Amino acid sequence: MTDAQFDLLMTGDTAPGVDRNIAVSKLATLFKRPVEQVDKLLCGKPSRVRKNLNQAELERYQNAFESIGVITKAVASAQAADVPQIDKTPATLNLCPNGTPVLSEDERYRPAVAAPDTDHLSVADSGENLSSNDSIPVPAPDTDHISVAPVGSTILPPAPKENPPQKSLSHLSLCGPGTPLLDKKPEPNYRVPNTEHLSLQ
After folding, report:
1. Cα separation, 27 vs 34, whole angstroms
2. Binning pLDDT at 50, 70 and 90, where does residue 91 land?
3. Per-residue pLDDT for 5 more than 60?
4. Terminal CA-to-CA distance of the chain, rounded, Å?
5. Residues 6+ away with beta carbon under 8 Å from 41
6. Among residues 103, 98, 92, which one has the least CA distance to residue 31?
7. Residue 160: CB partners within 8 Å, gap ≥ 6?
8. What is the mean pLDDT of the chain?
9. How many Å apart are CA 83 and CA 72, to the nearest integer?
10. Which of 13, 100, 108, 187 is most buried, by the most CB atoms less than 10 A from its CB?
């Protein structure tokens, strides 16, 4: 860890693309000072914010100023003796906690909501037909090829009669009464078990 000490300077300029008025407002909130007192700090002239900062403190302050679009510069403490220091009366610089709103509700940008143009619109009376009477006429369908059949006429032609296929039974025959329909099962051959070695107690 290095023991080098640094002074933090504000260059008096804002980062490219940052609106100066917004940066002044955020800087006033950061310093807890009126905007009129902080405005002169962003006039292009360097001012010393803090002195004798270690590396960790320097990075903390630089990140805070970078987040609001203010350009800072770090120099060794011995090299910043001639740079005017910001008047810290009555208190030194304090950073707001994370999440603190930088802008007040009055300072927040709210784009104007344009009302829709309704000059060309009108309200019709209840029950009024909203469709135009100049609609394109639809031609009547051609029905010259269509005729009306007398009452009771068959609309569909009769279905053709189909002769059912003849079934041949010549390969079939009837068995006589008592004819077994299943093959004869073989007689089971049961073997009598040998009980000569057994005795009753």
Report:
1. 10
2. very low
3. yes
4. 106
5. 10, 12, 27, 47, 86
6. 92
7. none
8. 79
9. 13
10. 13
